[in-house]
Amino acid sequence: PEETNATFFENIFESYQMLAQDADKTFTGTVKLDGNVNLDQSLVKQLMTILFDNAMKYSNEDGKIDILITKSGSYLNLFVSDNGEGISNEDKKRVFDRFYRVDKARTRQKGGLGLGLSLAKQIVVAYGGRIAIEDNPPKGTKFVIRLKIEMPTVHPARIFQKNKEISDKK
Ligand code: ATP
Asked: Where are the alpha helices (DSSP H) in the chain?
């Protein structure tokens, strides 16, 4: 059985809180959901891992990483803010490209292939959502992600059968 949303998010937040502590950073996670929503937990976990790893990687000591998860209508919103080095407007358009990395000399020492965000975008698109990058004044980046929550649906065959039952009764 899948974990509830609350335990699912708490477990992920907890491991990042420990990682952050070891790196002299702070990581805070807030979840504001009423009730349980239907998520593909392995995909959402992969998505969060990419964004949280980047927020940790591209912020310095005293880094502050804040996560907020909310729901509006049939969408799950995920906000990932850091106070790191930020992403210029020009690079905001390109960081989702495969293998694109900002300032190769500077990021080389941090490792990575430049694949994380392109994968993140694919996950979001598969979810019928969107991903955007904003600045996080005075310094840093804020990723704003919206995922369509799968609503429990009635199978088409079942609707057909119901209609037939109704018309048979007439
Ligand atoms: P990996 O393949 O391991 O994910 P990566 O981190 O370089 O490597 P992406 O996650 O695709 O690859 O990120 C692309 C580039 O965007 C990074 O190289 C970095 O320059 C920039 N970037 C991503 N997240 C942030 C962030 N939170 N703050 C500042 N720059 C970022």
From this structure: 5-22, 41-57, 89-92, 104-108, 116-126, 156-169
Q: What percent of the chain has pLDDT over 70?
A: 85
Residue carrying structure tokens 């490209």: 97
Res. 158 pLDDT band, cuts 50 70 90: low
First-last CA distance in the chain: 43
CA distance 117 to 115: 6
Can you tell me the distance from the alpha carbon of 77 to that of 68, in angstroms, rounded to the nearest whole number?
8
Taking CA atoms only, the protein residue closest to ligand 1 atom 27 is 55
Task: Please give the Cα distance from 40 to 51 (Å, whole number).
Answer: 17
Query: Tens of pLDDT along 112-143?
Result: 788 899 999 999 998 889 999 999 999 999 99
- H helix and E strand count, the chain: 6, 5
With the most atoms of ligand 1 within 8 angstroms of its CB, the residue from 27, 54, 87 to mutate is 54
Distance CA 90, CA 60 (A): 22
DSSP β-bridge partners for residue 64: 26
Rounded to 10 deg, the angle between the 41-57 and 116-126 helix axes is 150
